[in-house]
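Provenance and format

Records in this collection were gathered into a single text stream. Each protein contributes a sequence line and a C-alpha cell line. The two records reproduced below are adjacent in the stream.
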Amino acid sequence: MKNRTILFLTGLAALGTLARADVLLTESFSYDNGALITLSGGAWRNHSGTEALAVVGGQAVINQGDATGGREDLNRLLSSTFDVTADNTSAIYASFTVSFSAPPVGVGSYFFHLKSTVANQFYARVGATVEGAAPGSFRMSLSNEAWSSAGTVEYPMDLALNTTYMVGIKYDLATDRTTLWLNPESEASTSITATDVAAYGAGELIEAAALRQGTSVTTGAPGVLTVDNIVVATTFAEGVAVVPEPSTWALLGLGTAGLIWAARRRK
C-alpha cells in the first residue's frame, strides 16, 4: 500500500510540473465540419469578410491560394489583455501546427496574428511566401505589424507541401518585436526576429488571437493550409509545444522503467 501511495504521489508531482497555469487560450478545433464561427458557439468572432472560415477534419482551413477578397477573418479572445503602451515587461507566446496543400502566391501574406482592441491593428503577423525559397518550396515569413516584401523576414529553411510543421512565436512587449521558431527543441533553437516598427494607439490592448484569409500587396496570398492546436501563453514552456530531442525520449523511458522496477522490487 505504501509503495502504491509513493507512486501515486510521484505521478501527481509529474502532472503538476506539466500544469499550464498561465495559458491564455487553447484551441484544438475538435468540431464537426462546417463554419468555425458557428461550430464554436461564437467563441470565434468575425472581424472581417463574409465567406466562412471552415473546419474540416478537426483543423481550421485557411483558403487563400489566390487574390480573391471577401473571405472571413476570425478572432478568439485571450483570458487576459495586454496594454501595449503601459506594459513593458510581458511576453506573449503562441504555437500552432500548419500544413500547406497549395503554396503561397507572390510575396505571400499572413494568416495568423494577435489582434488588438483597435480596428485593423494586428501584431506578430505570421505568414508564408515563396520569396527566397527554391522552386516548388516556400518559407515562413514574419512581421511585427506591417506586411510588405521589404518589411518581412523569412525563416531560413525551405518547406514542402503536405508536411506538418510546428510554429512557435513570441511577441515581446519589452522590445515590441516578434520572434519565430520552427519545430523548436528549446527557446535557444534557430529563430528569426522581425524588425519593422510597431506603432500603438492610446489605450490599445492586445485581446485576441486571430486567423486570417486575405491578401497583401494586391496579389500576395498565403496559400491553402490547415491550422491546428493553437496555444497562447505567457511563457515559452507553456505556449510552445517543443519537439523533444531523441535523448529526451530515452531519458523519459529510462525514468519510467526505473520507477516500475523499484516498485516491483519493494513488493
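Adjacent record:
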Amino acid sequence: MAIRFSCNQCDRPLGIASRKVGSEINCPHCGAVQVVPNEEAAAASEALKSLGPASPVADGSPTIGTRDSSTRIVASSPGGSFGSRAPAGMILYPRNSVYVRGVLFAVVAIGAFLSGYFIGQGDATVEKQVEVEAKPPETLLIQGIISYREDEATTSDDRGDHRAVVLALPEGKAPKERIPARGFRPQDAPLAEDSREMRRLAELGGACARVGESGVFNLRVPEPGPYRFLLISGNTERPSEGSGSEADEIELNSIGQVFSTPALLLGRQKYFWSPKARDVTAEFGALNHDFGISGEQE
C-alpha cells in the first residue's frame, strides 16, 4: 500500500510504498532529502495543506501557545517521523508523551478529589468534637424538704428550715487540700459559684445548696454515683448536755476528710451525716429530713 504525502521542499505530491516508512528518500522532482512519514502523519499533513498556508509570524518564533485555528497538535507514532522539519503550523508530540500526560492529569485529579474528601472528613470530626466539648455536662437534680418544729404542737410541715445547708460529697474521694469550713455554715453568706471554695468542691465532684424559706432545696450533682449527704440545720441546735450534745467523733473524722475544720463547720447546729453512701441516679427520690425541736434530741 502506498503512502501519499507532499515533499517538504517543493510541495509536490509523492507516493511511496508503506514498507519505506522511516527511511530517507530523495524527492524525484527537487532532490530534497526527507524521511517517509507513517500513514497518520501523512494524512495529517495533507489535511493541514487543504486548510491553506499558516499565518506568518513576524519574528519567526514558533506558534506554540497561540489560539490560531491553523495550528494543529499531532501525535506521531513511535515508528514514524515527519522528517527533518515539521510542516508549518504543526507541533509534534510523540504518542507516548500524550498518553503519559493524560495519565498524569488523571492521577492529579484523583489525588485532589481524595485530598478534599479527607480534609472535609477531618473538618467534620473537629466540628463534632467541638460540639461535644461545648455541650455542658449532664447533671442530676436532687430535691427535698428540710424542716423543723418550734414546739410539740407544731408540725414539720409548718416550718421550713431556712438557711440550712445541704452538701453532697462523692464517696471515696478527698481533695488534695482540705476545704475551709467558712462559707458552708448556715450562718455564713452563701459563696459565689466561682469562689475558690466552690470550685474546689466542684473539682472533687461535690455540690452544695441552701434551703429556701419554704424548706425546699435544689441540689445538682455533676454525675451519677455514690454520695454521702451532710445536712446542717439553720434553725435548730443540739442539746446543751446529755446524749446528742456533742458531734460524733467518727462522723467528724469522716467529714474531716473533705473539710479542714469539721467541728467549726457544724458548730452547735443539729446535723445529719448519712451513715452510708447512697447511689444517686436519675430515679433518685426526694431527700427529706426533719430536725425536730431545737435543743432536743431527734
